[in-house]
Amino acid sequence: MNTMNYEFNSRRSMISARRGMVGASNPLAAQAGLNILRMGGNAADAAIATSAVMNVTEPGSCGIGGDCFALYYDAASGKVSALNGSGRAPADLSLDVTRALGWQRMNPFHAHSVTVPGAVRGWHDLLQRHGTMSLADVLVDAIHYAADGYPTAPVAGTLWQRNEAFLRKADNAEDYLPDGKPPQPGQIVRLPGLAQTLRAIAEGGPDAFYTGAVAESIVNSLAARGGLMSLDDLRAHESTWDEPIHSNYRGIEVYECPPNGQGLTALIAMNIAREFELGELAWDSPGRLHLMVECMRLAWADAHEYIADMRRADVPVEQLLSRDYAKSRAALVSSARTLEPPPLAGDLPGRSDTIYLSVVDGAGNACSFIKSLYMGFGVGIVAKGTGVWLQNRGAGFSLQAGHRNCLAPGKRPYHTIIPGLALKDGALWASFGVMGGFMQPQGHFQVLSGLVDDGLNPQEALDRPRWMLQDGLPGGDLLVEEGLPYETLAALASMGHRLVPVSGLRRGIFGRGQVIRAVDGVLHGGSEPRADGQMAAF
């Protein structure tokens, strides 16, 4: 079914507009993007403005010390391009270095897990290719909120407080502990170090981050904790523009960024699911949920085996997305029992905090954008005097010699953050994403199934209770959100699924999404009910 439900079957109505729409998990950030659209900027311009404010208002989820990815739909050409704004391991960091430390896997809170931050260069490159404004234009609101202050949002503030012990042990984190403790929801927060860094970037472009005083602070702060990143590593960093990968799900062409991101996982799961008539089963029935979980188990087995930096490893994307392969994998699924977990080739950490945002402008251009520090406040190091938290994306490397994703100098790690786009007959159908570590491809699969198989509107699709295979493991426990029928849960347990119910604030592990649907010249948006955000439109 490819129609959309316009009835009100949600606790929150979707938003509809024609001239532009921005969805983000913080209202101030969404409004910053809308301001840019009102000023005549396009989807790329608004995405960077929104991302920059998120850096200030949700510092425990994203930052310019992290990475970004984007999918951009150009309405004039009908083309989708994929920006990989992820960083690489330092040139002096090798498998031998970690072996000398006795590591069997990456330590996510050691300086060796810090890869070169890619977000700032990604901002610049997105604007250069698709934008109409400068960094100085789009960073105005972010600089204002960092310098003059903003009230902490409820969910973000609560999570900030829950990280108090981590923050007290972090290096150079004083700005993020106003009055010596994390801010409470509603408390005014100012981040003077970050404001200064954002001003420098606005004035000097990405070179103000990758060279000079900021770069020196990054290198010195890491060296104090045993890190090996050099000024040359930062100076040499560049984004890449890739051909997006895509697959057709019941008439909708779904686009993801190619590996080293894990969007391939969502496409594999959808390809396998296409072999079953999910839309003929009730969305919350044990039969449908069981089939979807089993498709996801098989997709995760492939993800752990194959996803890696495609410039440094062979990743057989075409074969993995072929119809014959999907049919062979679907044949392994039993309607009565859960699968024995396929063997894993890699072992990856499973916790992540990320921000996702979606923008569609009045001309029909769309930017699906995602940015992250990985594990909350990253590695636990702020580059001294800059307000810049440093990511720990290097924790995504395997230390298994010969594995596609094994650590190597100058290599990108397995990356969890993935934006999504969907077209129908070459026209924009949806800009979407669901953030949250290994939840992300599972969220893409579930939300798209609601949109496509059940004709839900964006808000309804985001409102539905979700499930997640824990840590992206084929044999992992099945986490289930409150709201699913008890009868369904009992039936799933009888099929062999190991269920872990999740409620309250912990529901945030099921991701925080934004969806904008384009229908006959009208934009319809839904924003995640598990977060602080909103759709802003005009």
- What would you call the shape? globular
What is the typical, i.e. mean, pLDDT?
94
Total helix count?
19
Q: Unreliable stretches, pLDDT < 50, 5 or more residues? A: 343-351
Helix content: 25-40%
Lateral strand order in the biggest sheet: 1-20-19-15-14-9-8
Task: Report how far the terminal alpha carbons are from each other.
Answer: 29 Å
Number of domains: 2
Compute the gyration radius: what is it? 22 Å
Main beta-sheet annotation: 7 strands, antiparallel
Supply the helix-strand structural class.
alpha+beta
* Share of residues in strands: 15-25%
Count of β-strands: 21
Structure in words:
The chain folds into 2 domains: 48-241 and 351-396, no CATH class; 242-347 and 421-509, Orthogonal Bundle (Serum Albumin, Chain A, Domain 1), CATH 1.10.246. The longest helix has 21 residues, at 286-306. Mean pLDDT is 94; it is low at 343-351. With 538 residues, it is an alpha+beta fold. It contains 19 helices and 21 strands. Helix 1 (27-38) runs antiparallel to helix 2, helix 2 runs antiparallel to helix 4 and helix 13 (263-273) crosses helix 14 (286-306). The chain has helices spanning 27-38, 43-57, 95-100, 119-130, 135-138, 140-148, 154-162, 164-169, 192-204, 207-210, 212-223, 231-236, 263-273, 286-306, 317-320, 323-330, 439-453, 458-463, 486-494; strands spanning 15-17, 20-24, 67-74, 79-85, 150-151, 188-189, 240-242, 245-249, 252-256, 353-361, 366-374, 382-383, 388-389, 420-424, 427-435, 467-469, 478-481, 499-502, 512-519, 522-527, 534-537.
